[in-house]
Write a structure and sequence with these properties.
heterodimer, A: 3-stranded antiparallel β-sheet, globular, B: mainly beta, 4-stranded antiparallel β-sheet, 2 helices, 28 strands
Chain lengths: 238, 316
């Protein structure tokens, strides 16, 4: 019989629920590799392993609430399900890194106030993004996987980096403390303004506006129309 | 004849300052040279691909320019304004500082490393593995320590200049960009762009002793601290605020905000005159250089630069 052994301080394990090889999974891999660069200087390691995992990362649209319940109070980070209803229900331990559908609708409508004829969509990320060091992150992802980074890959990368950074800054934090800190802190998503979680668990973040051909056109909040990140999507529980 | 030869030799050793400002234009692939006494552009030097970091050699006879897309440091003659050489500097050099012994310590942004380079021999003395997206480099007044920030690793790495090894790592606010030492070498300050903060670190313990996280509330929400310089009397800190479009003046001890001086759009690189009366700040998005009177605490001129200016150095 294998006895479950304890992880030593500075050894952190993350659980992943979803298909291996998806873009969220790839983003997660890059995030873990980069968290380990930070960890190397601080005496910490990060790896995917269900046993002893301090947080759960989910790429399973339609199953997030169940995954959140199974996480049993640990932070569960949603990497790919945009459903507005999930945000409205405000599960205490579910954090939505992927933008909600409403955030994207609001971003698109801001853009259309300025450019009514445009055929566009909003996204959490663009492989063409260069500002705010987005260029660097896109380069690293392309180098690692030989394909462009999409919004689920960005969500996987961001989720791991935010959790790992919080764990490193707060030695001894358990999963309850971790969840509280994630809800209080601000994070760098390499797309400008600091990102933070709303009361409803949704990550507050700028979005990118892309043309129907997939070309990056700009960002939302759309300058001249709105300035506040909370102009995108619902900010509170139902 | 002999006398004039002697005179030339002395001039070469300790040349009179040219009072020239050198501004790197990241998108213009050039360096704008401005006479700081008249505000007139003397020359635009086509220096190479993606110039960002800029600094002078200890004897001020050379201006070094980091060329990110050429993996090189360009060497510009301060007097003739010609590019005399390009030195291979590792991948994607972004920012650097010049040690009193002449060594250039630079950050290689896309490979997560720092490089110690001897510009005279062109030799790379050491490559040092640091965090992801290293940027700001600082050298302690005693020359013993080199600091490198890692923007995406949220860290300042403390490196021993003697053996070029990391001796400590300090976690700071998100996206640290630049560092500066206090004149007595007891402290260093770090700007964190995404966190919107400035931290003061005790060099003997490598612990943050004061941090100002209030700049966004006190100035405006778009504040992103980037450049940082202490005044010559050590009492003030000048901090460029990126899209906050201003330069903050902080008490160097408490980090309390004393003033915010409006400049242009996306304020990054800073330089200060030796007497401390003039502060120069580049405005990346409107392609200008702000000249700030540090007594009146106001902008007194806006000078034209090339496209998307990044950094500035002054030969005075």
């Amino acid at each position: 019989m294998i006895v479950c052994c304890c992880l030593s301080a500075g050894e952190f394990r993350f659980q992943y629920v979803g298909a291996e090889g998806s873009s969220a999974w790839k983003g997660l891999q890059l995030g873990i590799e980069e968290a380990n660069v930070q960890g190397k200087f601080m005496g910490a390691t990060f790896a995917l392993d269900d046993a002893g995992a301090v947080a759960v990362f989910a790429d399973k649209p339609g199953s997030i609430e169940q995954i959140g319940a199974d996480a049993n109070g640990r932070p569960a980070l949603n990497l790919s399900d945009g459903a507005d209803a999930l945000r409205a229900r405000c599960a205490a331990n579910i954090l939505h890194v992927i933008p909600s559908d409403k955030m994207k609708r609001d971003a698109a409508s801001q853009w259309k106030q300025k450019y009514p004829a445009a055929d566009i969509a909003a996204s959490g990320w663009s492989p063409d993004a260069v500002k705010f060091s987005a260029r660097d992150l896109n380069k690293r992802y392309m180098k690692r996987f030989g394909e462009p980074m999409d919004e689920c890959a960005w969500a996987g990368w961001f989720a791991v980096r935010a959790v790992a950074d919080t764990l490193m800054r707060n030695p001894g934090a358990d999963s309850v403390k971790l969840l509280q800190l994630l809800k209080e802190d601000e994070f760098d998503g390499q797309k400008g303004d600091p990102h933070s979680f709303r009361k409803n668990g949704q990550l507050r973040q700028p979005l990118m506006i892309v043309s129907d051909k997939g070309k990056l056109l700009g960002e939302a909040p759309v300058r001249g129309i709105a300035a506040d990140l909370d102009s995108l999507g619902a900010t509170s529980c139902e | 004849m002999r006398l004039s030869a002697f005179f030339i030799a002395v001039v070469a050793l300790c040349a009179e300052p040219t009072y020239r400002l050198f501004v790197t234009n990241e998108a213009g692939d050039s360096v704008t040279v401005i006479d700081s006494r008249t505000g007139k552009v003397e020359k635009t030097i086509a220096v190479g691909d993606r110039p960002r970091g800029i600094g002078l050699s200890p004897d001020r006879s050379r201006v070094y320019v980091a060329l990110g897309n050429e993996n090189a440091i360009a060497v510009v003659d301060t007097l003739s304004l010609e590019v005399v050489r390009k030195i291979p500097a590792g991948s994607d050099p972004e920012a650097f500082a010049v040690h009193g012994d002449g060594t250039i310590y630079l950050s290689n942004e896309d490979t997560g490393s720092a490089t110690a380079l001897d510009p005279d021999s062109g030799k790379i003395l050491a490559g040092i593995e640091v965090g992801i997206e290293p940027e700001g480099v600082g050298i302690s007044p005693d020359g013993k320590q080199v600091l490198v920030t890692s923007e995406s690793t949220n860290m300042v790495h403390v490196i021993s200049a003697e053996d070029k090894k990391i001796t400590a790592n300090v976690l700071v606010g998100a996206r640290p960009r630049e560092v500066a030492f206090s004149l007595d070498g007891k402290y260093f300050w770090v700007t964190s762009e995404v966190a919107g903060e400035v931290a003061k670190v005790d060099r003997s313990t490598n612990k943050i002793v004061v941090v100002n996280k209030r700049l966004r509330r006190e100035i405006n929400r778009r504040v992103k601290p980037k450049g940082i310089l202490p005044s010559p009397d050590g009492k003030r800190l000048y901090v460029s605020l990126g899209r906050g479009n201003a330069v903050a003046v902080l008490n160097s001890d408490t980090l309390a905000l004393e003033a915010a001086v409006p400049a242009g759009s996306r304020v990054w690189g800073l330089a200060l005159s030796k007497d401390g009366t003039r502060l120069y700040a580049v405005n990346g998005l409107d392609s200008t250089l702000s000249v700030i009177d540090t007594l009146a605490l106001k902008e007194i001129a806006k000078l034209p630069t090339g496209e998307m200016p990044w950094g500035v150095a002054l030969d005075d």
